[in-house]
C-alpha cells in the first residue's frame, strides 16, 4: 500500500467530499481570484525537493494566499485539501493552477490522481497521458511525501507516479494489457524496492486479467522475501503469496482492517479471478465493498471488477 493510498482513505467518504464542493468552491476561489489579480510577483517555482512542505491544510492555504501564482503553493494547497477527502475541491485547485501554468506536469499528475479518486477515469487518462508526454526526456525527481514514512525516506518520483496512476486508470477501465505494460516499465525503472513491489504487484494482476498468466508468473520469479520494504509491505506479502511462499492463512492473518486489508484482499481476489476461481474472487470483492473507505485503490479495483463480472 503506497502512502498515496493511505492518504486517500484518511478523510470523509467520496459522497461527503463531493457534496462539499457546492458550498466551498465559490467562496474559496473568489478570494483566490482576487489574490491572483493583486499578485505582482512573476510566476516562480523553486525545486519541489528543496522546500519543506506545509504541515497541514491551514498552512498550505496560507502559503497559497501569500503566493497564489507559485506552482508549489498550488500543489500543496491541492494535496492538503485532498488529504481531507475533499477530492472535488482539490481538482478545482489544480484546474485553476493549470489555467495559470498549462501542461505543468506536477499539476497534471495530481489532478489525474484526484480524477481517479472521483472515478472520472477518462479525465484521469487524459491528464496523466499529457503529463507523461511533458516529462518525456526530462530527468526524474523525488516527489516529497506529505506524510513521511517512519524512516523519513521518500519512495516515489514524479515520473513513477505519473506512470503508476496512468496504469491504474487504464486498469480500472478494463484496458489490462496497456496497464500491465506501463506497470512493468514502472517496476523496471523503480529507484527502490518499495516502488518496485507496488508496480510489480499491479503488473502481475494486470497481466493475469489480460489472460497472460505466463508473463504474470515470470514477473514473480525475482521477488524475494528478504527485501527491506519500508511502506509497501502489503503488496510485498501478496506477491509472495502469489509466488507460493505465503499461505492463505498467513495473508488472512494480516488483513485486519482499513486500506492494508483492502490492498491484500484485492490482490488475492484479482489473482483468483485471473486463475478462474470466480467464487473465491467474488467473496473477497464483496468483503472489500462492504467497507466505507471508498477511495483506496483496492476498493476502486474491486468495484471495477464486480462491474465486469455482472
Descriptive labels:
mainly alpha; 16 helices
Task: Give your account of this protein's structure.
This protein is mainly α. It is built from 16 helices and no strands. Helix 3 (57-66) packs antiparallel against helix 4, helix 4 (71-83) runs parallel beside helix 6 and helix 15 (278-289) packs across helix 16. Residues 10-50 have low confidence and may be disordered.
User: What class, by secondary structure content?
Assistant: mainly alpha
Residue windows where pLDDT falls under 50 for at least 5 positions: 10-50
From the alpha-carbon coordinates, what is the Rg to the nearest angstrom?
19 Å
Order of helices and strands: HHHHHHHHHHHHHHHH
Q: What's the layout of helices and strands?
A:
Blueprint (H helix, E strand, L loop, with lengths): L2 H6 L5 H25 L18 H10 L4 H13 L3 H14 L4 H13 L3 H15 L22 H15 L3 H14 L3 H17 L3 H8 L12 H10 L5 H7 L3 H17 L3 H12 L7 H13 L1
Helix pairs in contact: 2-5, 3-4, 4-5, 4-6, 5-6, 6-7, 6-8, 7-8, 8-9, 8-10, 9-10, 10-11, 10-12, 10-14, 12-14, 14-15, 14-16, 15-16
Short synopsis of the structure:
This protein has 310 residues and is mainly alpha-helical. Helices cover 67% and strands 0% of the residues.
